[in-house]
Amino acid sequence: MGVMATPAPAPARADRPPLAPSQPLLRAESLQRRYGGRAVIDVAELEVAAGEVLAILGPNGAGKSTLFRLLLLIEKPDAGRILFEGRAVQPGDRAVSRRLAGVFQRPHLFTGSVRENVGYGLRVRGVSRPERARRVADALAWLGLEAHAGAPVHALSGGEAQRVALARALALEPELLLLDEPTANLDITVRRRFREDLERLARTHARAAILITHDPGDAFALADRIAVLHEGRIVQVGAPDELVLHPATPFVAAFTGAELLLDGSVSGKEDGLVLVELKGGTRLVVAEAAQGGVALGARVHVAYRPEDVLLAAADAAETSAQNRFLLRVTALNPAGGLVRVRLQGDATSLAAGVALTALVTRRGADTLGLAPGRDVLAQLKATALRAFAAPR
């Protein structure tokens, strides 16, 4: 595919009156779905506002695809309800279904040309031929598929097929666009370009969009808010920065890129900070988690992000960081333009119970002369750490 020119912004649809600020476009309440007696989805509440891109982020097996089908009104919940513009809806409601469009993880393309596939939904809905031709041409142009309009779909690459599925959804001019793992089957170079298309199109061709994904990269790149789904339940909803800086649970912390130190216990508390003693006797000064506190004597997990670990020469002067450890480099793992540095406290040192991973630039690694066996000073501010009550 050639280089794609940036199109002019799509005009606002006159038939889409703005919602009241307090009213979500779509809302789910007490939503449950069971398979074989097992609850796959148990969502107390979830909503997306007009003008918003909401990501539902979770690992494989969390129930994301089931939730996608429920929200798209192609599967019926066992309990709870879904409201569209404040009105309860369910599968079979054709008036509302026509205002939604979904793009599935594996595109369902039919035999025929790209043009025929993009226009299929319009033809089924009885859209006139001239209007159908206009919408198809617009959708193909937006996604840079004009040159492929007459090509058979079986000749397309994976990235091109995914673009055709997206074009077919956009041609319907949906009010709510739902996307299920849209980048999961794309290679890294195609994925990066496809993300750019998704962000642009989700904000200009629909009143709102819901992105279902297991990839934090997709969620953080595209969404205004992220709902983290774990074992069928929403465990935290917030802006991307909120999830990074104030994870509500160890799962959220780990899934959004944090590392965990285990086997700690609380030995003191003061002004929102806790003193955590690790199994080896090392002490950490840690900020409490955003939701809920930890009691004195409680076992805790401590989470940190590798990019918050600051490394310095072993004899560096003191800084304001409340956690300072002399650690030994055990491994260096290149990660693109960065290096993941594995660090471990010597068994005979005061940092015997500390094992950290730091993320540094290649230049920083070279400047410090990092190599396995070299000692460095690792520093972490208390506010860069979070303590969570360990499960019993």
What does this structure look like?
By secondary structure, this protein is an alpha+beta fold. It folds into two domains: 26-245, P-loop containing nucleotide triphosphate hydrolases (Rossmann fold, 3-Layer(aba) Sandwich), CATH 3.40.50; 259-389, RNA polymerase II/Efflux pump adaptor protein, barrel-sandwich hybrid domain (OB fold (Dihydrolipoamide Acetyltransferase, E2P)), CATH 2.40.50. Helices cover 24% and strands 34% of the residues. The strands form four sheets. It has a six-stranded mixed beta sheet with strand order 6-7-8-3-9-10, sandwiched between helices. Strands 11-12-13-20-14 form a five-stranded mixed beta barrel. α5 (129-142) crosses α6. The radius of gyration is 25 Å and the shape is elongated.
- The shape, in one word, is elongated
Taking the sheet with the most strands, its summary is: 6 strands, mixed
Q: What distance lies between the first and last C-alpha atoms, to the nearest angstrom?
A: 54 Å
Rg over C-alpha atoms, rounded to the nearest angstrom: 25 Å
| Whole-number total of structural domains | 2
By CATH, the superfamily of the largest domain comes out as P-loop containing nucleotide triphosphate hydrolases
**Structural class designation:** alpha+beta
CATH architecture of the largest domain: 3-Layer(aba) Sandwich
Q: What is the percentage of strand-forming residues? A: 25-35%
Proportion of residues in helical segments: 10-25%
Mean pLDDT figure = 86
Examine the coordinates and then state which fold CATH places here, giving the name of the CATH topology of the largest domain: Rossmann fold
The total of helices stands at: 11
Question: Which consecutive residue ranges, at least 5 long each, have pLDDT under 50?
Answer: 1-22
Strand order, largest beta sheet: 6-7-8-3-9-10
User: Total strand count, please?
Assistant: 20
Tell me the name of the CATH class of the largest domain. Answer: Alpha Beta
